[in-house]
Amino acid sequence: MQDAKLLIVDDDPDVLLAARLLLKRHAGSVDIEKNPEKLPFLLNNNRYDAIVLDMNFERDVSSGREGFAWLERILDIDPQARVVLFTAYGDVEMAVRAMKAGAADFVLKPWQNDKFVETVRGAVVGRTRLDETGTTKRGNSSQSANHSITLSLIGSAMRPILDTVARVAPTDANVLILGENGTGKDLVARAIHEQSNRRDKPFVSVDVGALTESLFESELFGHVKGAFTDARDDRAGRFEEANGGTIFLDEIGNLTLAQQARLLTVLQQRQVTRVGSNKARTIDVRLICATNADLAERVATLRFRQDLLYRINTIELALPPLRQRPDDLKPLAEHFLKKYAKQYNRPVTGLSPALLTEMKQYNWPGNVRELQHAVERAVILAAGTVLEPGDFVFRKTDSPTNGTSPVQQTMQLEDMERVAIQQAMQKHKGSITDVARELGLSRQALYRRLEKYGL
Ligand SMILES: Nc1ncnc2c1ncn2[C@@H]1O[C@H](COP(=O)(O)OP(=O)(O)OP(=O)(O)O)[C@@H](O)[C@H]1O
C-alpha cells in the first residue's frame, strides 16, 4: 500500500497522532480529521483508498451509534469506500453488525501495530479490486460518472426539475431550491454542481441554519490564529474552501438579520475577510441556497432581507412534497428496497399492492427521507419476501387538508411534531442520532426543533 491515500477520523488527538505515525510508514499519505462532520467535504474532494473511522465520537458513549451513522453517510457518498472501524470496547457483536452494514473490517483499541497495519492493508487491497472490476467510481472524469448524482434522482416529478438543472447548471446563475425537509434539495444542488463547468472543483455544503451566532462568521469566512479563545491556528472558511467551485447554503431561511447582512456583503463584494484579519480575499464561488421556509412571507414580515433574496434567487427550483407525487412512491420505494436488501443481505424482493395503497394514503411529512428510512427498517425486520403494510410504521398524523384554517393546521402540526419528538426522545433515551433517524430528520434539523419546542 505504498501509494495508498488514507484518512483517519477520531475525536481523540492522541489516537490520531499515534495512528498516523504508524500508518505513515506504510502508506503514501495519511490525512487525519477530528471532526466527522468534515467527512462529506473530505470525501467529495479526495479519493481515499481506506478510511479508519472511530465508532464513538461522544465522550463516555460506547454504543457505536455515531460510527454507524457516519459509516452509512460515507457509503452513501462513495459506495466503494473501504472503512475500517475503530472500537475501544472489544464489542465483537457490534463489529460484526458494522461489517454487515458495509464496513470492510474493524480494529480494537488499543491496537497491536502489526495487526492494525495488516487490517488497513486488507482494506486497501479490497478497494483496488473494487476499482478494477468496478462500476462507476468518483473522480472518474467520464461523462457518465460525472452525472451519477443526476442519475440517482428518481421519479417522474424530477424530470422537469432535471430539465431546468441541465439548462441552468452550465451558467453561473445563483439558484434557490425550495422544498420541505427530505424532498431532495441537497441532491439537486449536487446535480447542478456535477453538470456545471465547476464539477472538478469543490462542492462545499453548509447547513447555515445550524450555525450559532458565534460560529457563523468563522465557519463561513475563516479566522486567524488568536482571533478568539479557541482559534489556535489560521483557518480558511467554507467560502475559501469552495473557491473555484460551488457553495451550497442549506436552511438559508433560518439566518438572523445580522447574519443576512454579513452574507450579503460577502456576496456583493465577492470577497471574504477571516475573523481577526483585515486582509480581504477574493473568492470565485457559484452560490446555491436551499430552504423549507416561505421566504416571500419572511420578506413580508421583515424577517428576511429582500435584497438578499433577490441576490440568491436568480433561478428558483421548487421541489414538490412526496404526498403531491404519488406516482413516484413506487419507483422510489423499489429503489430503496433494492439498495437495502443488498446492503443487509435480506431476501426481500418487492412491495405488496396493499402496502402501495397505504403508502399513497399517507401524507409523508418527512418526504423521501422518511420513505427511505421506512423501507430500510421494513427490509431489516420483514418476515416475508414481499413487504406488507404491517412491515411499515406510518406515523399518526392528520391530513393537513381537513377543513381547519392554515393557522390551526400549523398549530396542530407543531403540536404533533412536538409530541412525536418527545415520544421518540423517550423511546431512544435521548439519542439524537436514533431520534433523527426515526423521524426522518437531519440531526441539525432535530436540534433546531428541540430548541424551538424547548425540549
Ligand atoms: N428523487 C430522489 N431519488 C432518490 N433519492 C432521493 C430523492 N429525493 C431524495 N432522496 C433521498 O432522500 C434523502 C433526503 O434527501 P436530501 O437530503 O437531498 O433532502 P433535503 O431536501 O436536502 O433535506 P433537508 O431539508 O432535511 O436538508 C437522501 O438520502 C436522498 O438521497
Q: How many distinct domains?
A: 3
CATH architecture of the largest domain: 3-Layer(aba) Sandwich
N/C terminus separation: 49 Å
The average pLDDT is 84
Q: Stretches where pLDDT falls below 50 for ≥5 residues?
A: 132-146, 398-411
| Fraction of helical residues | 40-55%
**Outline:** globular
Q: What spatial order of strands do you see in the largest sheet? A: 2-1-3-4-5
Helix count?
20
Ligands, deduplicated: adenosine-5'-triphosphate
Task: Count all strands and give the number.
Answer: 16
Give me the Rg, rounded.
23 Å
Reported for the largest beta sheet, the result is: 5 strands, parallel
Q: If you consult CATH, what is the topology of the largest domain?
A: Rossmann fold
Strand-residue proportion: 5-15%
Helix vs. strand class: alpha/beta
Domain Response regulatory: 5-124
Pfam family, one: HTH_8
Organism: Spirosoma montaniterrae
GO molecular function, one term: ATP binding
How would you concisely characterize the structure shown here?
The protein is of the alpha/beta class and 455 residues long. 46% of the residues lie in helices and 14% in strands. The N and C termini lie far apart (49 Å).
What would you note in describing this structure?
This protein has 455 residues and is of the alpha/beta class. It has three domains: 5-133, 3-Layer(aba) Sandwich (Rossmann fold), CATH 3.40.50; 145-318, P-loop containing nucleotide triphosphate hydrolases (Rossmann fold, 3-Layer(aba) Sandwich); 324-452, Helicase, Ruva Protein, domain 3 (Orthogonal Bundle), CATH 1.10.8. 46% of the residues lie in helices and 14% in strands. It has 20 helices and 16 strands. It has a five-stranded parallel beta sheet, with helices on both faces. Strands 7-10-13-6-14 form a five-stranded parallel beta sheet. The chain has a two-stranded antiparallel sheet with strand order 8-9. Helix 3 links the parallel strand 3 and strand 4 (83-87). The longest helix is centred in the C-terminal third of the chain and has 22 residues, at 406-427. It is globular and about 55 Å long. The N and C termini lie far apart (49 Å). Residues 132-146 and 398-411 have low confidence and may be disordered. It binds adenosine-5'-triphosphate.
